Amino acid sequence: MRPLKLEAMLHRLFFVALASLVLSLLAGCAGSSQSYYDGETQRGLASWYGPEQQGHLTADGETFDMHQLTAAHRGLPFGTIVRVTNRSNGASVEVRINDRGPFDDDDRIIDVSSAAADALQMKGAGIVPVEIEVVRLGSPVHRSQG
C-alpha cells in the first residue's frame, strides 16, 4: 500500500510542477507584450538590410523586397506605419512594419529596408541614431498581401 501512496504523490507533484511551468510561461508571454499608440515615439539605433534577404519571407509572411519602404521592429504590429528620422542628418521616411527584429543586444530598435536606408542617407554609416514615430498603428492580426 505504501508504494501506491508514493506513486500517487509523485504523480500529483509532476502535475503541479507541469502546471506551474505552463503558468510561468503564460505569465512571461503576457508580461512581455506592450501596447503601442499612434504618435508614440522611440529613440535608438537603426540598421538596414537588403540583398541578403531579398526574396525571403518576412515574419509577416510576405516576400521581402528591398526596394519597398518596409522595416523590422521587435513588437509593433504588422502593417504599422512609422516615420523614421535619422537624427544625424534630419532625413526621414515612412515605412511599413512587416518583419521582426533587430535581435542583437544593442540599442537598435529598427531595421529598415535598403530603399528606406537610401532615403535616410544612412548606408555609408550602416547604423545611425534615429527617432521613430508611430503614424498609424497596424492591426495585430494584419497580414500583408505580398
Could you provide a short overview of the structure?
The protein is an alpha/beta fold. It has helices at 2-32, 114-120, and strands at residues 41-49, 70-72, 81-86, 92-99, 108-113, 128-136.
Looking at CATH, the homologous superfamily of the largest domain is: RlpA-like domain
CATH third-tier fold name of the largest domain: Barwin-like endoglucanases
Counted by DSSP, the helix tally is 2
Given as residue ranges, the uncertain stretches (5+ residues, pLDDT < 50) are: 22-32
Structural class: alpha/beta
**Which radius of gyration do the C-alpha atoms yield?**
21 Å
| Gross CATH architecture of the largest domain | Beta Barrel
SSE sequence, one letter per element: HEEEEEHE
Strand order of the largest sheet: 1-5-2-4-3-6
How are the secondary structure elements laid out?
Layout: H1 2-32, E1 41-49, E2 70-72, E3 81-86, E4 92-99, E5 108-113, H2 114-120, E6 128-136
Parallel strand pairs: 1-5, 2-4
Antiparallel strand pairs: 1-6, 2-5, 3-4, 3-6
